[in-house]
Amino acid sequence: MKQRSHQLSIAVATVLLAAGSGVQAEESAASDTSAWACKKCTFAQGYTSDAEIGAGWLDESSAKFGDYTGLDEDGAYVVANAEGGVVLESGYHLDYELLDLGLDSRAASIAGGKQGAYEFGLSYDRIPRRLSDTGETIFSGGDALSLPGGWVRAGSTTGMTALGTSLRPVDVGYDRDRYGANGRFFLGDQWTFGLDYKRDERSGTRPRYGSFGSVSTEMLRPIDDTTDRINADVRYQGKHWFAQLGYFASIYDTKAAGFQFENPFNAAVAGGDAGRMSLEPDNLYNEVAVSFGWFGLPWNMAVTVSAAMGQGSQETGFNPYTINPNVAVDALPFGDLDGDISVTRADLAVSARPLDRLRLRGSAAYDERDNDSRQGTFTSIVHTDLFPIVDDRVNAVYGHERTRLNGSADFDVYDDLAIGVGGEWRNTDRTGSALEVSGEEVLDGWGRVQFRPSGYLGIVAKGGVEERDPDRYDVNVAAGFGQNPLMRKFNQAYRYRSYGELLTNVAVGSLPLSLGASVFYGDDSYLQSDLGLDSGLDRRYGVDLNWTVNEKIAAYATLGREKIDSRTRGSSTFTTADWMGHVQDDFETYGAGVNAQFTDKIGVNLDYSYGAGNSRTRITGAGAGIFPVVKSELSSFKAAVTYGFSERADLRLTWWYETLETSDWSYEAQPAAMPTVLGLGVDPYNYDVNYVTLSMSYRFGGPKAAEAAAE
Amino acid sequence: MKLPQALPRGLLLIGLGLGPMLAFAGVPEKAPNAGAPYSAKGADTCLSCHDDPEVVDVFHTAHAQPNDARTPFGKGGLQCEACHGPGGNHAKRVKKGESRPSMIKFGRTAATPVGVQNAMCLGCHEQTAVANWHMGPHDVNNVSCAACHDSHKAKDAVLARATQPDVCYTCHVAERSQFQKVYAHPVRQGKLACSDCHAPHGTVAQKQLVRATVNDTCYECHAEKRGPLLWEHQPVTEDCSTCHAPHGSSNPGMVKQRGPLLCQSCHSQQGHPSFGYGPSGLPGNAAPATALALGNCMNCHSQVHGSNHPSGSSLTR
């Protein structure tokens, strides 16, 4: 034992010595910089600030245009932006940014500190979700949706005689307010302490369907929740290594974990005139992680290792089986799930350059989701608050262990030509209960050629094949779910994938003009699936051209196209396949723009982009037919003219024209046309908007202020 | 021989065998000014010629902080030559007919090999922000740091949420198209940046995601989906991208395929899940299918991400 310990010590010492000598060989001699006064260095100092104020006008209301932008209602808007900061000679600085203060998409941030000593930041960002403004609902209320007085129930929407007078327009959407605070403190050269806190608050509504038997209603479910996230870490930095300890927490808290709604249809059974839906419950997750890294090792080797353990929980109390008072139910097996998720992760990454022309990379990653939530037998399940389910059901728990090994080697055959090969092995073991396929192996192999004769031309071609080989399909488990024994779920089915990719970068230095182009091809075949997804074919290409005409004019142009074809087999007779769904998604885009400073006073910026999609669905066999094409066409043009009428003041005029036309049979279903589903009647997205702004901006401070401050 | 017993002996052999070899490990790529002397006055020498605005803007960046000893312009720092290499020869008077010795230059079209460019950046940054740089596709594809970063600009476009995507799109051309689809994350609107989901400096995670798994990355914004729930939908717990196309889709909810076909790629139960729904079931026809229009399957199975309702086993409550 003692001898082995000595051997181990000597071995480690030898490797470390070798590592040390290798590191030393790469370091160059330092220069004496004591006389480098840096007198011509114009370090930032003083304050500077840009403020913009003005007005904007939007000529048409559109929820879709206002989604994320906050420009959803026609009329006037305030244009208000500002940014700036102050830097002291001592290195302390404070910067701020205020964006779109006049819009619902406003954001603000402040950051300060002394670089290398401590840093802090505060931020706010509102993300407006505007989902629709063409819908109508009969319901009122938040988490208890009630029908209007005088409502006439019927077996189908066509019989709801009070529908026309009861519908009221409703805007659907919610706001996400994101608050952030972060700080970083440096203790000497080695220690860093970091803390990052984010809080998301959401409030509003989004659509949710609620059914009673075979009829359903689209309603507005409430959203009223917060998510707090904390990232904290402490890091020690050595000369050629680091160690880091981190903590992450996520706390999701909702005030809307469910809602109740009345049934606008005739109740199929007594008491079936109202239902209750559960929504996402509170959850909590904590994780501790450690990581280490070593750099500058022999063979130019870098090694990183990390490991993490997390624990998630969910303990929200259950709703009753039903709120239908006429259905007798047993007691629940327990009052809440006592949801318990354990997460374990570990990974190792090694890269090395043992020869000048050879690069080796390898990694191993493991992650486990262990679901220890409570399981029980639910003996009184009531389908949609109407019918007791005859059989008892045990809640399944799902978990997995995934291992991934990845390795690649790249060799520079010549200075301008490199070839590479790589492979990846992935293994998934599904844990838990009620698993049709308990695991799978994926083997992926690829080759790559890089030709880069100069900085002006680079070509990368990559191609490979991947095979996913699942474990035995458990027909008995599938039968328990009522599945056709020929079905193979596409995410667990055997799959053979071939793919190829070509990336090119070309630059013409004399113009200077640069071009980037990419082509991708991916072909998935589910060769052992009689039912389910049969194949998928993905083709993409794109070109991006940038031209710096001269110091004052720059232009760009882009185009791209993506085509995805897929086929799905089904059996309407619960035997062999008797129908097939064919979907062809085609999307093309192009765009162009120019940024020009024509004179010292006048600058122009123009941008145009276009995107058009067509989705074609065809059914062959049982139910054969061709669906109307789902179309979308987006054109967006932005123009901005800036006139500088002094060194500090600019006048800015912008025009944003955008049009979106969509046709979608999914949304062309007004209530009367869909007897079994009472929808909100939302129209497909169509808008044609102009948004014009006129604003003045002024620069405060800057070099002159700094000089004055210095004097 | 059992592995624990063999371990020390193996390590010893590796150490003894590799030690001498490692001591002579060479520098992979040479800088054009390798071995040259440094300039006499540092930045003052450089700025005698290179005083144009795009150069001196560096003094408004994090690299030029005289109070931060870690930066090139900190106390004892090599100033411009910390990144561009020693400029003693470059700054000397050049004889007629001779070309001026090169410095290390940065950028997509710079003559300096990418390996040399990146080695200069990694000399400081590898140990901090970019620990897994060599594992990422950007290193694999020989992308220089300066292809994305402009370290001389006070406002590096790739560091701002609104301008970052355009930098990424110069190579990731297809993604520009995808984010223009009707249903997409708000990258086009400047509310989400590529780096909110992806770690461009390399990571062990697939697709260079910022968190270890796809789901953990999604939970950054969609924490309500984390669960666990009483009735889980198995693929939801495993991988959100089984159903969703995060870069955009022509289908509501950014799903890869429109229902009911998407659902029928997995579900084949006798009765309504297994029917071939043709256009005769569209609204307005004699017998419109409940599972075809509006929310299709989700008209009833609306709790597709799982349910916490005791009667939610069919994901209807």
Per DSSP, what share of the residues of chain A sits in E-state strands of 2 or more residues? over 45%
Tell me roughly what share of residues is in helical segments of chain B: 25-40%
Global morphology of chain A: globular
Oligomer: heterodimer
The mean pLDDT of chain A is 92
Average pLDDT, all residues of chain B: 88
Q: Compute the gyration radius of chain B: what is it?
A: 28 Å
Count of alpha/pi helices of chain A: 5
Head-to-tail CA distance between termini of chain B: 60 Å
Which regions of chain B contain 5 or more consecutive residues with pLDDT less than 50?
10-29
Note the main sheet of chain B. none
- Kindly name the structural category of chain A: mainly beta
Chart the SSEs and their pairings:
The complex is a heterodimer of chains A (711) and B (317).
Chain A: H1 2-26, E1 46-58, H2 63-66, E2 75-87, E3 92-99, E4 107-114, E5 118-137, E6 144-145, H3 163-166, E7 168-187, E8 191-212, E9 215-237, E10 241-254, E11 258-262, E12 274-278, E13 283-297, E14 301-314, E15 339-355, E16 358-371, E17 377-378, E18 382-383, E19 387-388, E20 393-394, E21 398-414, E22 417-432, E23 439-454, E24 457-470, H4 475-480, E25 495-508, E26 513-525, E27 532-550, E28 553-570, E29 579-597, E30 602-621, E31 625-626, E32 630-644, E33 649-663, E34 677-678, E35 686-701, H5 703-710
Parallel strand pairs in A: 6-11, 9-34
Antiparallel strand pairs in A: 1-2, 1-35, 2-3, 3-4, 4-5, 5-7, 7-8, 8-9, 9-10, 10-13, 11-12, 13-14, 14-15, 15-16, 16-21, 17-20, 18-19, 21-22, 22-23, 23-24, 24-25, 25-26, 26-27, 27-28, 28-29, 29-30, 30-31, 30-32, 32-33, 33-35
Chain B: H1 3-23, H2 43-47, H3 53-56, H4 80-84, H5 88-91, H6 114-125, H7 137-140, H8 145-148, H9 164-169, H10 173-178, H11 214-219, H12 234-238, H13 261-264
